[in-house]
Amino acid sequence: MDDFAQQSEELESLEAIYGPGWAEYDDVSGERTVPLGHGWRARVALPSCYPSADAPVLQIVSPRAHTEEFVSGLARELEEMFEMQRGTPCLFQWIEHLRERVSQHEEQQALTVPPSPPHAAAASPDSTNAAQYDEGDIEGELETIRAEEAARHAARASKAQQAPEIDCPDILHDEPFTDRKSTFQAHVAPVTSPAEVARVVYELLQNGKIARATHNIMAFRIAMPNGTVMQDCDDDGEHGASQRMLHVMQILDVRNVVVVVSRWFGGIMLGPDRFKHINNTARNALLKYGYAAADGKAKKR
């Protein structure tokens, strides 16, 4: 596949993952401006020889002054990432890495802000109303989370009771990985139809531990007789996770396989790290069980 075709495929994948408005495109310069969160942005242009030879041309735009050292460090990190996988599209990994690092940076900056004086709250006539409003917001968010969790468990219970009348493919379970009390584990199986995907999901949910996981993120890709690839994914409540995992499978060009990554939440928020762990858990299992090679190319199965 030539550079132009790889660029087109990568841009289509990014739109599928992030939505149509994932970047603001400038017709004149050919640059795309990507929001990174907290007011940070990245301006990126794709050279004609990307990804075979050249890296994307990227400029990081900070919302505040005195961030030159941090931005320079980010540039070095992106350069190293490209060199490690030269010849493979890297824009998705760059965006995710930048968003993760920016989020960490902003959290650290917030910790260095001195606390307000004790009398500051009393000086504001709206402070009591603001506190009540915040508590109401939090309670509303909790109610939403509870409702989503109840709906997710109901849907999962329904899947666990509906066994497709076909034999279940062999399921391989990778070793679990734990970070800050959250545990991630990948389950991989060969599939050639959506019915087999459903059968695999059903079989996994018969395991009490997997059924009790906070999320069971699923993605599959199946090669069709006409040369196209059927693919789909399910977040199971971890919004955006399955699209990211599917993109990893697209980059590896794996086919006729379903991956389910179970996550057991340990009580400590991981932030963007959770997406990195889900992707790495899926990727490592696909490599380990022979669906992809270490050079990123799919193996024949």
Describe the structure.
By secondary structure, the protein is an alpha+beta fold. The protein has nine helices and ten strands. The protein has helices spanning 3-18, 68-84, 91-112, 120-123, 127-161, 194-205, 208-211, 241-252, 273-288, and strands at residues 24-25, 32-37, 40-45, 57-61, 172-173, 177-179, 182-190, 215-223, 229-234, 257-264. The strands form two sheets. Strands 5, 6, 7, 8, 9 and 10 form a six-stranded antiparallel beta sheet that branches. Strands 1-2-3-4 form a four-stranded antiparallel beta sheet. Strand 1 and strand 2 form a beta hairpin. Helix 1 runs antiparallel to helix 8. The longest helix has 35 residues, at 127-161. The radius of gyration is 22 Å and the shape is globular. The two termini are 21 Å apart. Residues 115-139 have low confidence and may be disordered.
Name the descriptors:
301 residues, alpha+beta, six-stranded antiparallel beta sheet, 9 helices, 46% helix, globular
Spans of at least 5 consecutive residues with low confidence: 115-139
SSE string, helices as H and strands as E: HEEEEHHHHEEEHHEEHEH
Helix content: 40-55%
What is the tally of helical segments?
Answer: 9
Distance between the termini: 21 Å
How much of the sequence lies in strands comes to 15-25%
Note the overall shape. globular
Alpha-beta content class: alpha+beta
What's the rounded overall pLDDT mean? Answer: 81
Radius of gyration: 22 Å
**What's the β-strand tally?**
10
Major beta sheet summary: 6 strands, antiparallel
